[in-house]
Amino acid sequence: MVDEVPPANGQADPNAPQFAPQAVYVKDVSFEAPSGPRLAPNAANPTINLNLNTSVNDLGGDLKEVVLTVRVEAQAAEKTVWLVELQQAGAFGIRNVPPADMQRLLGIFCPNYLLPYARQVISDLLTKGGFPPFLLPPVNFEVLFNQAAAQAQQQQPQAPATSVN
User: Fold this and answer.
1) How far is the C-alpha of 53 from the C-alpha of 32, rounded, in Å?
2) Per-residue pLDDT tens for 36-81?
3) SS3 65
């Protein structure tokens, strides 16, 4: 076990990276069940379509808002059984974090932090709508972040090679 030595003046380093969740909230939510909780008697099990997206907004100062947008739709026989659209948001205080680490923090850690809240909201909405609860599957935001970064890098125009005469 390593003992930490406190700073000589008893105060934390003001330049140390800091991260603190400030609030978690539902920014926007929509639930639709066009036919109520009824399915046609001969309908097959519904197909579930899941789309995720994240965005970041600057709230001023050291605050960033991360919004996890989740769209889940169940379809049976080409008809929508239910549709949930949710924007689960969080305000995060972030200070003294290097830019490369900031991108990973906002693109990986914050959505991971918000996912359990989104999972609960969606499950509750479906239950209150008369359907069995649906739990969002685990999501590996690190893989999604790395895929998006690789795709963005491929889309950047390549600098023309300069020739030296």
Assistant:
1) 20
2) 877 766 777 889 999 999 999 999 989 999 999 999 999 988 889 9
3) strand
How far is the C-alpha of 35 from the C-alpha of 31, rounded, in Å? 12
Q: Phi and psi for 131 in degrees, rounded to 5?
A: -110, 160
Which run of H or E residues covers position 96? none
Nearest CA-CA partner of 54 in 141, 162, 125: 141
pTM over 0.90: no
Strand order in the sheet with 47-60: 18-32, 79-95, 63-76, 47-60
Nearest to 117 by CA among 103, 94, 135, 104: 135
What is residue 107's DSSP assignment?
A: I
Residue with tokens 């590996």: 140
3-state secondary structure of 71: strand
